[in-house]
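Quick one, tokens below. Sequence please?
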């Protein structure tokens, strides 16, 4: 049984970049639905007891075949959103020196990284996510469709932006690029730096 984590800040904390109404719908309805649907799927296999939601995605082949797609979609939605709330904050501190030097060495400069990440987010066709991941020790920008998780590709997420329309349509309508530009103001680089530091 997985529980919907509370937001680590107030619903209005990310204003004016992400509005409180979007946060309410996104967390209280969408994230809640992924949580319920994941639990409903797992309830049909009481003998199957994963260690964590992340483990479900890391090792999808161990999930009973008749619920595997539901677990991939709803377990992905559950884990991706829990992660997404954590890597945002009302005050966005800069990356720490260790992460900054890794970003510089992988992408040239922080601004170049942001441009490439933004391009991946804007260019993701339809619903999905853009990611910064660690892939065998390398920092890589990637994107996934639907709720697919980089965990299923043996990659460790460091940063993510949700580009499903439900993440921005109320405030930005079809202007995804404008949403991404605003979103950079609420990236919790302190948390991203902590996750990166935890890898080595
Ligand atoms: Mn979402």
């Amino acid at each position: 049984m997985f529980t919907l984590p509370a937001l680590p800040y107030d619903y209005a904390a990310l204003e004016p970049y992400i509005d409180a109404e979007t946060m309410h719908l996104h967390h209280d309805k969408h994230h809640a639905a992924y949580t319920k649907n994941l639990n409903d799927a797992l309830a049909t296999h009481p003998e199957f007891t994963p260690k964590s939601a992340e483990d479900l995605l890391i090792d999808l082949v161990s999930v009973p075949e008749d619920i595997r797609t539901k677990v991939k979609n709803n377990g992905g939605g559950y884990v991706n959103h829990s992660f997404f709330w954590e890597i945002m904050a009302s005050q966005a501190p800069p990356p720490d020196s260790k992460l900054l030097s890794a970003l510089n060495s992988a992408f040239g400069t922080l601004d170049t990284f942001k441009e490439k990440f933004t391009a991946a987010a804007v260019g993701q066709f339809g619903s999905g996510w853009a990611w910064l991941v660690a892939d065998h020790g390398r920092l890589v920008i990637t994107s996934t469709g639907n709720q697919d998780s980089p965990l299923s590709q043996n990659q460790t997420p460091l940063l993510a932006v949700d580009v499903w329309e439900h993440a921005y349509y109320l405030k930005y309508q079809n202007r995804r690029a404008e949403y991404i530009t605003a979103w950079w103001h609420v990236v919790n680089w302190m948390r991203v730096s902590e996750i990166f530091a935890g890898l080595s």
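The domain at 20-86 is CATH 1.10.287.990 (Helix Hairpins). The pocket of manganese (III) ion is lined by residues 26, 30, 81, 162, 164, 166-167 (CB under 6 Å).
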